[in-house]
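Hi support team,

I submitted a single chain yesterday and got back a structure, but I'm not sure I'm reading the C-alpha cell output correctly. Could someone confirm the output below corresponds to the sequence I sent? I've pasted both exactly as they appear in my results page.

Thanks,
R.
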Amino acid sequence: MTQKNYKIMKYIYTISILFLFSCTSGNEDEVKALLNTKLKNCNKVIIEAYQNRDTFTTFTQDKSTIITFMELMNGRQDKKLGCTPKGGLIFMQNDSLLFTATTSSNCTQYKLNGKTYQTRMTLRAGLLIEEVTERLIKERKK
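Hi R., thanks for writing in. Yes, this is the structure output for that exact sequence:
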C-alpha cells in the first residue's frame, strides 16, 4: 500500500467512525426528545414494588420526585445490566397512562417503538425507590 493510499484509507476510516458516533448520538437524542414529549405533562407517578407474589403500590405528585424518575427515561442503552424487575414506575397525567417502566436495584427498563432500553439506575432514584419500597412493606406487615 502506498503512502497516499494509506492516508486516504485512514481518512475514510476516521470519517466512518465519526459518522457512526454521530448517528448513535442522534438516535439517543431523538429517543430522549420523544420521551420528553411523552412525559412532559406527567403529574403523577405510581411506584410499584414487587416482593414474592405481592405488589405494593403508592404514588407521588411531588414534582422533584417525578423529575428524578423521568431522568431515568433518557434513551441510553447501557449494556450488561441484568435488569430483573423488582418494581415499576407508571407515569400518569391525571388518570391517563403516559408511560411505564420496570425497575431493579441497578437499572430501569422500558420499551419505546418496539425497542427495549436498559439504563443504569441513578443513585437518587434508586434511594427514592428503596425508601418507598421499605415503607410500603413495613405498612403491609402491620
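A quick pointer for reading it: Strands lie at 44-51, 54-60, 87-93, 96-103, 107-112, 115-120. Let us know if anything else looks off.

Best,
Support desk
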